[in-house]
Amino acid sequence: MTYTSILYLFIFLPGVMLFYQLAPGRHRYKVLLAASWLFFLSLSGKLIIYLLISTVSVHHIGLWLSSCKKDLNLTGVSAEEKKSLKAACAVKRRRILWLGLGVQLGMLVVLKYSGFFSDNINHLLKAVSYPNLLPAMKFALPIGISFYTLQAVSYLADVYYEKIPADDHLGRLALYLTFFPILMEGPICRYSQTANALTEGKPLEYKNVTYGFQRILWGLFKKLIIADRLNLLVETVFGSYKQYGGIVVILGAILYTFQLYADFSGCIDMTIGTGEIFGITIPENFRQPFFSKSPSEFWRRWHITLGTWLKDYVFYPISLTAPVKKFGKNSRAKLGKHVGQVVASAPALFGVWICNGFWHGTGWHYLFFGIYYFVLILLENLTEPYVIKAAEHLKINRNNVLYRIFQSVKLLIIVFIGELFFRAETMTAGLSMFQSIFTDFDTKVLTDGSLLQLGLSLADYTAVFLGFLAVLTVGIIHERGISIRDKISGYKIPVRWTLYYGAILLVIVLGAYGDGYLPAKLIYAGF
């Protein structure tokens, strides 16, 4: 059962809505929690044990962090004793936090990464003529482990830093971690963003339900018409890359980028729409990323919740460590204000992008993907003032349309190269595909019909193109700050429902399903 399946759309979700509305307000969160666990069981079965361990341990450790400080009695003690007691409490709370993080991240590392580390250690030992010392390890992964683990970590960190109080309501915390719309592909929510809304038990309202289904329909449009239709071509090109030259590789990289965006953002649309139905505001995860002008801006608009999570829980903590602060002070003193500041931020930025790469997967190509963006963003930060000065010296208007087009094209090339390595089966495959762009660039494939032998017909290309135009048009309108849904809601009922039925018909007619198609699994559900 996935968000695009008939079982989910026509049985599970309507059933949850029915039982939710029938339940008394104070018990409605129980309906959502039961639905979330049922959804998890349908996808991961007995692996729910990991989710339960995570939930119970987060709840207990959060309360422990809170009680440790509450139990600190400073009445009638001297100033020196107060200082000593506070220091001891701080040490204890820090150890409790590390225990909590160890449990959450330990399960993630063992289940997801132990095979990668054992394989690479064995390869290293083999290179120096030692026998394999570590067994090959591979564990079944529960759905959504990367997402609910990061939510658990953010909760514990926020309790530790006293941004939020520890929640003694186990059901609310469990629902925050496992709310079924966000379970497979996020977004990564903070406790302060969704936890209370999940247990308020608001009744279903007409506006929320219609807005929610509008958003779900838009997600289905992107997923079924663009992502699923492109999947056969992407699988063909990346699965048999040695058979194709540079033109096909470029096409594969470009179309995979669009597939990934349509798949992931489409799923997020369905997630946010489902939340809206129940009156729950789930944070946006995309903000027209392809309108960006630089890699750093792109990542502020793409997978927004992962980026802000890494900034708050990786970048800032690394920046505030004593060695990094000392390194930064020395860098500024020796290299000057700007260069020193950029160099000083490098260790924290490196930590962010190493984590970003590993979070997505266990291959070396994912690690390369992270380092690729680390280098690009570091160079961007380093050169930006000099680019501005050069533009002023050459009297180039950086707001000029031609200059902005140049920036956009440059950014798209950077993104396409990154996604080429991201999607490649291995690092070796990625390098081979990238090399073919320069060594096997045969333009005859554009005219000899080869592009119609990659799994897509002319009708498929046409449907994808029309779907892409629709997404582009909506993106341009949103970039101008116009709410299409508010506009539609202002129309009279006949016009409004004509648009709804027209959109449904488009998804039915142009969606990729049935014989001859290879529907894409929700891509980010694998991360």
Structural summary, described in words:
It is built from 20 helices and no strands. It is globular. α9 (206-239) runs parallel beside α20, α12 crosses α14 and α16 (401-423) packs across α17. 73% of the residues lie in helices and 0% in strands. It is mainly alpha-helical and 527 residues long.
Percentage of residues in strands: under 5%
**Overall number of strands:** 0
- Gyration radius, to the nearest Å? 25 Å
Q: Which structural class matches the secondary elements?
A: mainly alpha
Separation of the first and last Cα atoms: 18 Å
Question: Biggest sheet: strands, sense, closure?
Answer: none
Mean pLDDT reading: 91
Which series of helices and strands comes N to C?
Answer: HHHHHHHHHHHHHHHHHHHH
* Overall 3D form: globular
Low-pLDDT parts are: none
Number of helices: 20
How much helical structure, as a percent, in the residues?
Answer: over 70%
List the main descriptive attributes of the protein structure presented here:
globular, mainly alpha, 527 residues
